[in-house]
Design brief:
This protein is mainly alpha-helical. The protein has helices at 4-13, 19-36, 42-65, 73-85, 100-133, 140-149, 163-172, 184-218, 229-267, 281-292, 301-330, 337-366, 373-393, 397-425.
Length: 427
C-alpha cells in the first residue's frame, strides 16, 4: 500500500475539487483500500484511519504555512486559488457588475455631477465658443484685400481678440445674463450627458473584466482580471462616442447657434444669421427641423463623435494615471479625497489638451461658418502654415483649460460622493 502522503498528493494532482471535498473523498478511498487489504486486521484499520485523518490535517497545515514544501508551483497556485475563493470560481460574480441598482446609482450620480458642473462653468463655454467662432476662414488673398480696404471695426470680436476682450464685449452686450446664453438645453442635457458617459464606461469596464477573467480561468488563474490603461482608454472612448452621437451633437448645435447669434446681435450683423434672430432653443429647433429636417440638428456630428471618443478615452486614461501615481507623490492614503480631486484635474487637462482643435472645428461646422472640417484644416495650413493653423485651432485654450481642470475635478468628486452615498443607503 502506498504511503499516506504520496497517496494524498497523487490524488490532489488529479482532482480539481476544493480541499474540503478532497479530504472527504480521500477518506472514503482510503477506507475502501484498507478494507480490501485481506491481511489488515480491524485494529490496524482503526489505527490506519486515525493516522489518515491526522496526516491529512498535518499535510494541509504544512502546505498552508509553507507553499514550497511538496506541491509543484502550478498545483500549489491552483489549490490556493480555490482556497482563497472558497467557492467554485465560475459561480463567483461580483455583485456590482450588472446589478440594476448599480446602473441606477451611476445614472443619478452622473446627472448630479454634470448639472453642478455646467451650472458653474457655462460662462467659460460661452467665452470659448465666441473666440472659436471669430476664427477667420478666408484665403490669404481675400484677407489681404480686406485689411487694405477696411479697418478693423471697434468693439467687435475678431480673430485676434483674447479672453479679456471677449469677456468685456459679452458683459457690455447683455450683462451677466449673456454668460448663460443657450444654458437651458445643456443644463437639461447634463442629466443625460454625464450619466451616459459614466454608466456606459462602467458597464464596458465590467464587460472587459468578465471576458478577461474567464480567459484567465482557462489558464488556471482564478484571480479577477485587472484593467490595463489601454482598457480604460477603450471603455472611455466607447462611452464618449455613444454619448456624442445620441445627445451631445444636437444639444451643442443649438447652444453654439445661440451663442453665435448673441455675437451677431451685438456686432449688428444679424443679416448673416441663417434663420434670423431666434428667441430661444425651442424656436431654433423648430426652424432647423422645418428647413433641414431632423438631420440638421446633427450638423457636425462626425467631428463631435471623433472629439468625444478620443476625448473621453483620454479623460478616463488620465484619471486612472492620476489615481495610480498621485499617492506616490503625496504619500497620503490612495483612497484620500485629495487624490480624487487631483486625478480629476489630470483628466480634464488630458481631455482638452488633445481635443481642443477638434472642438474648434466642431464649433465652426455647427455655426455654419464652414461646411467641412477637413477643408477648414487644409485652408488654415495653406494660409498660415502648420504652426499658424495649430494656433488658430487652439483659440480659447485659456478658457478650455481654465474650465476643464476644475470642472473635471468637481464632476468626478461629485460623482464619486453621490455614487457611494447611494450605494451605502440603497444596497
Amino acid at each position: 500500500m502506498e504511503s499516506i502522503n504520496n497517496f494524498i498528493l497523487k490524488f490532489r494532482r488529479k482532482s480539481n475539487k476544493t480541499p474540503t471535498d478532497q479530504n472527504n473523498h480521500v477518506t472514503k478511498l482510503a477506507q475502501q483500500e484498507i478494507l480490501l487489504d485481506k491481511n489488515t486486521s480491524s485494529s490496524v484499520w482503526s489505527n490506519g484511519a486515525v493516522s489518515i485523518f491526522s496526516k491529512m490535517k498535518t499535510s494541509d497545515e504544512s502546505i498552508s504555512s509553507n507553499p514550497n514544501v511538496t506541491l509543484p508551483t502550478s498545483e500549489r497556485e491552483r489549490n490556493f486559488g480555490l482556497q482563497r475563493t472558497r467557492k467554485n470560481p465560475v459561480m463567483q460574480k461580483k455583485t456590482h457588475i450588472n446589478g440594476v441598482h448599480e446602473v441606477r446609482n451611476s445614472i443619478i450620480a452622473g446627472s448630479s455631477a454634470g448639472m453642478l458642473s455646467v451650472s458653474i462653468f457655462h460662462p467659460f463655454d460661452v467665452i470659448r465658443t465666441k473666440m472659436q467662432v471669430s476664427t477667420r476662414l478666408v484665403t490669404a488673398e481675400n484677407a489681404t484685400t480686406t485689411l487694405l480696404s477696411t479697418s478693423a471695426p471697434k468693439n467687435v470680436i475678431t480673430s485676434s481678440s483674447g479672453p479679456i476682450a471677449v469677456f468685456s464685449h459679452t458683459i457690455k452686450n447683455g450683462g451677466m445674463r449673456a454668460f448663460y446664453t443657450g444654458f437651458s438645453f445643456p443644463l437639461l442635457a447634463q442629466a443625460c450627458y454625464k450619466s451616459t458617459v459614466f454608466t456606459v464606461n462602467r458597464v464596458a469596464q465590467n464587460f472587459v473584466v468578465d471576458v478577461k477573467t474567464k480567459e484567465q480561468w482557462k489558464t488556471g488563474i482564478f484571480t479577477p482580471y485587472q484593467l490595463k490603461l489601454s482598457d480604460h482608454f477603450v471603455c472611455g472612448s466607447v462611452s464618449g462616442a455613444i454619448n456624442a452621437l445620441v445627445f451631445v451633437s444636437p444639444v451643442e448645435y443649438v447652444r453654439n447657434q445661440l451663442i453665435s447669434q448673441h455675437t451677431h446681435i451685438a456686432d449688428g450683423t444679424t443679416s448673416k444669421l441663417k434663420y434670423g434672430v431666434m428667441s430661444g432653443p425651442l424656436e431654433l429647433t423648430k426652424a432647423t427641423l422645418k428647413t433641414e429636417g431632423i438631420i440638421g440638428l446633427w450638423r457636425g456630428a462626425g467631428v463631435t463623435v471623433v472629439r468625444d471618443s478620443i476625448g473621453c478615452g483620454s479623460f478616463f486614461l488620465f484619471f486612472q494615471l492620476g489615481k495610480t501615481y498621485l499617492p506616490m507623490v503625496t504619500g497620503a492614503e490612495p483612497t484620500s479625497q485629495i487624490h480624487t480631486i487631483g486625478a480629476g484635474m489630470c483628466a480634464g487637462l488630458g481631455y482638452w489638451a488633445i481635443t481642443l482643435p477638434l472642438d474648434t472645428l466642431k464649433t465652426l461646422v455647427q455655426t455654419g461658418k464652414t461646411n467641412s472640417a477637413m477643408n477648414t484644416v487644409s485652408l488654415l495650413v495653406n494660409r498660415d502654415g502648420l504652426y499658424g493653423a495649430v494656433s488658430q485651432l487652439y483659440r480659447g485654450w485659456q478658457m478650455a483649460f481654465g474650465r476643464g481642470t476644475p470642472s473635471a475635478a468637481i464632476t468626478l468628486t461629485t460623482y464619486s460622493a453621490v455614487y457611494h452615498f447611494l450605494d451605502e443607503q440603497y444596497r
